[in-house]
From TrEMBL:
Residues 112-335 form the ABC transmembrane type-1 domain. Belongs to the binding-protein-dependent transport system permease family. It comes from the Archaea. This is ABC transporter permease. GO terms for cellular component: plasma membrane. It is found in: Cell membrane. It comes from Thermococcus argininiproducens. It is a multi-pass membrane protein. The chain crosses the membrane at residues 12-29, 111-133, 153-177, 197-221, 310-334. Its main location: membrane. Pfam families: BPD_transp_1. InterPro entries: MetI-like (IPR000515), MetI-like_sf (IPR035906).
Length: 343
């Protein structure tokens, strides 16, 4: 197997660009948060410490600045924040990691493992089902047309809508599966805990599989049809080679090339859907943590206020970008293994 260096370099370049965008955005957020803090502090000082406010106003007037602008610049200076946006972003990210570590409710390692477990399980089930079903319906045009209609239908349906439907049927109406959470409370022990976690993951995994599997089945079926028209397959059939051997020895390898490419294309969409489903099912993965970075509070005389937590949001976006880069790289390596031309 040759390593597809050009593809790896291209993916790494995209990854670096994404990191730069995240860092720049973090810097802008850091600057805005400091400015907001300066505005709020100045308003508070007007009532709690008028003498200090007058001193700030006097110094600000000497420098021909507003009180807020003067206090903001002093705040930046005291905290050692560089005025460069990228440097501010790096400082915010560094500070974020330090603030997240002592928080017991934020378990990044566990969240990453849950995310990878659900995504990889879903992908393996989708690929296995699509190969098994797609090869069988390749010779049945009417059934293939029906599956194509299903693929178009589910391509336009939000994954959370399917999740709501599954929860209503299997958790509420028939009470077969748990509606949310990663495990029962109180948690079981030993082998019982493992089965309990698997039981809680059935609906999230089933939702992802049910939404995406139809497109994969169509891809496999169409590729199988195309392969049956190739001269070497016709020759093998003429020699009397069994269909099972033709399917698994010749057709599957060529289908694998197309399937790996299509998996790479759909992975980002699958990842995005997973983040929504993770928050919906409360799986304690990256999606739920991402939701936690926006805290909704009800403030008297004001209403509902959504507070942004940058110290949680930006590290999560970097982790998500890194996971996407690594999994995309693995998919490209698999493509290189199946098709040397990729290298």
């Amino acid at each position: 197997m040759k390593v597809p260096y050009k593809t790896a370099v291209r993916l790494f370049a995209i990854y670096l660009c994404v990191l730069l965008v995240i860092t720049t955005t973090a810097g802008l957020a850091n600057e805005k948060l400091a400015r907001k803090e300066a505005e709020e502090t100045v308003v508070i000082l007007q009532y709690t410490n008028p003498m200090f406010y007058e001193l700030l106003k006097e110094n600000a007037t000497k420098e021909n600045k507003t009180v807020v602008q003067y206090y903001y610049e002093k705040l930046i200076e005291v905290r050692g924040l560089n005025k460069n946006v990228i440097i501010q972003g790096i400082q915010l990210l560094r500070q974020s990691w330090e603030e997240i570590k002592p928080i017991k409710t934020v378990k990044l390692g566990r969240a990453v493992l849950i995310t990878l477990g659900v995504l990889l399980s879903s992908m393996l089930l989708i690929i296995f089902t699509s190969i098994t079903v797609g090869m069988k319906i390749a010779t049945k045009p009417s059934l293939l047309d029906f599956v194509e209609s299903l693929a178009r239908f589910f391509n336009g349906i939000p994954s959370w809508w399917i999740a709501v439907l599954f929860v209503f049927i299997f958790a509420i109406k028939y009470n077969i599966l748990p509606a949310s959470g990663l495990m029962s409370i109180p948690p079981e022990e030993g082998v019982g805990l493992a089965f309990d976690i698997l039981k809680h993951l059935i609906l999230p995994v089933a939702t992802i599989v049910f939404v995406f599997v139809w497109e994969f089945i169509v891809i496999v079926a169409r590729e199988t049809q195309r392969e049956f028209g190739e001269v070497y397959i016709i020759t093998e059939i003429a020699k009397g080679m069994p269909n099972k051997v033709i399917y698994w020895k010749h057709i599957l390898k060529n289908i694998g090339i197309t399937l790996s490419s299509f998996t790479g294309q759909k992975f980002m969409e699958m990842f995005t859907d997973y983040l929504v489903l993770d928050a919906f099912f409360s799986l304690q993965g990256l999606g739920l943590l991402l939701k936690s970075s926006f805290v909704r509070e009800v403030v008297p005389n004001v209403g509902v206020v959504v507070n942004f937590r940058p110290y949680l949001f930006f590290p999560l976006t970097i982790i998500i970008a890194t996971l996407f880069f690594l999994i995309s790289l693995v998919i490209e390596l698999i493509k290189g293994m199946l098709d040397p031309r990729v290298s």
